[in-house]
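User: Fold both of these, please.

Assistant: Here is the first one.
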Amino acid sequence: MNHPVVRQAAAHLLAYPDDRFWARLPLVREAAQPHFPAFLDRVARMDHGELAAHYVEVFDLKRRCCLYLTYYADGDTRRRGESLARLKARYRAAGWELCDDELPDFLPVVLEFAALDPSGEQVLKEHRAGLELLRAALAEEGSPYESVVSTVCATLPPASAGDLRAAERLAAAGPPAESVGVYR
């Protein structure tokens, strides 16, 4: 399996299915068909609006299907801001500069980084529990995106028992939360 190709293709497949998504889909299909047949076959049977509605329903409305990797471990806490800053610093150290409208933990951004820079695989490994939770949640939803995340996970070493336990804990408890400025 060619990990950079798989990760770059997955970055495109996990992006919002706008006009750019559909325009580049034939190229992605040509380069990565052997790695994403289930997703590509299912998407071929969907119209543009149907896939866009599914994307919003799954990724924007279901917390367990979040594409922002630090959310799983940090929730909406101050600690997440620190994690985002550290990730942004890692990108800069590798010569990357993000656009202002992109968060550094957005899975397609992380995948693109991992496709183009060897240090990106470590970022994916560090968020393995979140990836496993995302994969399981997408499978529960019957989403075609599950096969994309599963293929990404297959580019990494097998999940450790600790990663799987962490994913189970996250599934049971949800991400951390804090009440800033609220008195009880």
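And the second sequence with its predicted structure:
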Amino acid sequence: MNRDEALRALGLDHSASVDDIKSAYREMVQILHPDKFASNSKLQSRATEQFKYLQEAYDFLMKGGSSSSVRGPSSDKPYTGDTRSARLAGIAQARVQLVEQKDLVLDQRRQGLIMLVAGGLAAFALRRIPAIAGIASAVAVWGIVQLFSSNNTVNTIDEHLKKLKKEQRRIEEELASERSDS
């Protein structure tokens, strides 16, 4: 990994300060942390890979890749237009990943609903055969669990998408204001 790749992973450009790097890292951790997807092993695995890449980029910038080219932590310089554009690119990338994850979770929610309905109908229709009715009931219960856990994950993803949209609007307004001032 080189410095440019590390900065891109955090949605930053070459003029990012140490404070910018830390802030971008914290934001990305909130979005990509694998624990947020504990109910879905496929999503958690993907988030773990992305989280490791994010961590590698952050470590590179904070240890070896940032010594001569990143402004020090005492810099209070606000985001520049280039930094804002890089942040917008990072937000866009995070939104794409979250939408993909949401699609997978919505598929799981549909599967949970199907298991609930099919299991419930089978349990009712086969209630005179206790062994099969018990299995069908277990399928229905698993469908309920899948449905509720998927709903919680969808709600969490939606909250993150709203935060990203709010941040995107704020940065776009700053850029528009900056353009109108010049």
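The helical segments are 3-9, 18-32, 41-64, 81-125, 130-181.
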